[in-house]
């Protein structure tokens, strides 16, 4: 993807840009809000990685101006401002995601991949992966011709995993996107729901499409 990184910490920006390029992404860097806003208005960027505290123009104002101008490029805030109000303000300004420093680079990459997926994915009403079929309108799950009943939260969990098939999703991403929890409650809610979902999904199958990536998160494996 083509990424725009707006970060005034040059050492951090250089490290992030090198990491992004190592994973095949193109990166344009801006070190202040004004130049970042100018670059963000250009159409070639697929995801914007944005610091909150910037010289000249702060990140919140930058996103508000982008959205007011009709620019819909997905934005993820990357910031030390970790309060609940800070997160809410960032999302209400128009950002799609919010990640607090310090962070795991692998999680940042995963979030960027999710933000950069094609908009057409959101219009799909039936998700299919191998012998698994999830109907988003009828709210039904069928695997190999067998209907499987899911609780609402299990359905949301499977939908998120399948929308991001073959991509790493972290525990934090699941908490935010499935449970709308923007902090770590230090409970096993994700793990317990994954376990129950696996039990239902794999009752008559020897193949488990939900892969645990130890120390990182989960992948829903779909045949290419």
If you had to describe this structure to a student in words, what would you say it looks like?
This protein is α/β, with parallel strands linked by helices. The protein folds into two domains: 2-115, Rossmann fold, CATH 3.40.50; 122-220, Winged helix-like DNA-binding domain superfamily/Winged helix DNA-binding domain (Arc Repressor Mutant, subunit A). 38% of the residues lie in helices and 21% in strands. The protein has helices at residues 10-22, 33-40, 59-68, 84-93, 105-115, 152-163, 171-178, 189-201, and strands spanning 2-6, 26-30, 47-50, 75-79, 97-100, 126-129, 132-135, 140-143, 146-148, 210-213, 217-220. The chain has a five-stranded parallel beta sheet, sandwiched between helices. It has a four-stranded antiparallel beta sheet with strand order 6-7-8-9, with helices on one face. A hairpin with a 2-residue loop joins strand 6 (126-129) and strand 7. Helix 2 runs parallel beside helix 3 and helix 6 (152-163) packs across helix 8 (189-201). It is elongated and about 60 Å long. The two termini are 20 Å apart. The model has no long low-confidence stretch (mean pLDDT 89).
CATH-scheme architecture of the largest domain: 3-Layer(aba) Sandwich
Under CATH, the topology of the largest domain can be stated as Rossmann fold
Q: Low-confidence runs (pLDDT<50, min 5 residues)?
A: none
Largest sheet: 5 strands, parallel
The number of helices is 8
Strand content: 15-25%
| CATH level-four homologous superfamily name of the largest domain | Response regulator
N to C succession of SSEs: EHEHEHEHEHEEEEHHHEE
The number of strands is: 11
Task: Assign the structural class, choosing from mainly alpha, mainly beta, alpha/beta, alpha+beta, or little secondary structure.
Answer: alpha/beta
Helix content: 25-40%
In spatial order, strands of the major sheet run 2-1-3-4-5
Tally of individual domains: 2
Question: Tell me, what is the CATH class of the largest domain?
Answer: Alpha Beta
Q: What's the overall geometry? A: elongated
Distance between the termini: 20 Å
Taking all Cα atoms into account, the compactness measure Rg is 19 Å
Report the mean per-residue pLDDT as an integer. Answer: 89
